[in-house]
Amino acid sequence: MGCAQSRQNEKSNMISCEIKYLLPELVQAIKLGQQCLYSEESPIKLTPIKEIGGIFCKLESLLPSGSVKMRAMYHMLYRLQQKKRHKGIEQLNLVICSSGNAAMACIECLKLMKQEKKQELQVDQTVSEFLQDDTPTDPGQSALIKDQQLSSKIKPYELLGQLFIFCKHLNELHQFSDLPNVKVINSQLNKSDIEIEAFKYAEDNGYDYLDLQNDVDVFGGYATIGFEIDQWQVLTKTKIDYVFVTLKSGALIAAIAFYLKYIAKNQLKVIGVMLYGSSRREQTICSQIIEGFIDEIMFVTTYEVEKAQCELAKAEEIAEFNSAIAYAGCKKTQYKNSLVVLSGSNVPVSDLSKLISKYE
Question: I want to staple 315 with a disulfide (CB 3.0 to 4.6 A). Which of 52, 65, 84, 258 is the partner?
Fold first, then answer.
């Protein structure tokens, strides 16, 4: 395994005791996440699992925003909206620290919520107008016209509230110049200082700061991946022994591992894959769960990740660099009965073409 860090049973039990006080809240977040993400209004659909080179891949990259962050963001905003409505507040004023994927996921969710809100407000008026319409036309045709009129009033770029994005540089795939309610605030600070700056900005203006590391609703959204993997095994009668997930901030893998190990009582092993030279945060809720429920942590090189991107591309699956880290780890171990969570596909086609040419 190379630089893999095996988890000892004694350590796992000890860490589990440290997070014992969090368990009821985490379990509740997962239940709420399932109710939210599997509702008819949710943009989240069951992402497919495809076999590539003998490895099962869960394609989170097919979600509307092109990344797994859509799960976390929709559940977080849905819950936040509920709390705001309880106080009589409809508009969301949000601050986020992101260079692309999280911000894009947030925007996609806000668009959807805006459409839902406008439909709620306009449906009564539309029905009333329809009933009073004495134009001698076919009723079915009239209903169709009214439906088209309603749709035309919902502009796709309108958001429910406003969003402030703090970042050092924005991924070239994500340009928000045509979104009047989105403001990008560039900073020359390092990432941790930008986060502090963003949090202070939200606090000073009375806005809500979206913390993707320590919010239980984020955890509840990501945990639904574990639910889907567990259900897929049962329905397809497929045995999975290893699940590989890219380990960066830790929120994604912590939620998946927690569901599979604690909720589903699954005996499979969850392996976190990191890039050589990278580090992860220790002072988060997720870091405690990682210590308790992840079986191994392994490392891969940039070369191995880029080769993994090329292999996936040849199989007609686009994976951004961070997403391919997990696949590279799985290829390195050569473990059988493995599943990889492909978390995102937001990579410029030109960059991917250059990469494929490089390794041909």
Answer: 52
For 243-292, the pLDDT digits (tens) are 999 998 888 999 999 999 999 999 999 999 999 988 776 666 677 777 77
Number of Cβ within a 10 Å radius of residue 51: 11
Q: Contact at 8 Å (CB) between 215 and 209? A: no
CB atoms within 10 A of CB 42: 17
| Tokens, residue 243 | 């699940």
**Two tokens at 126?**
């539309």
Contact status, residue 39 vs residue 70, Cβ threshold 8 Å: no
Q: For the beta carbon of residue 30, count every other beta carbon within 10 angstroms.
A: 25
φ, ψ at 343 (rounded to 5°): -90, -15
**Of 294, 300, 253, 251, residue with least CA distance to 275:** 300
CA atoms within 13 A on the CB side of 199: 8
Q: Are 81 and 197 in contact (CB under 8 A)?
A: no
pTM: 0.81
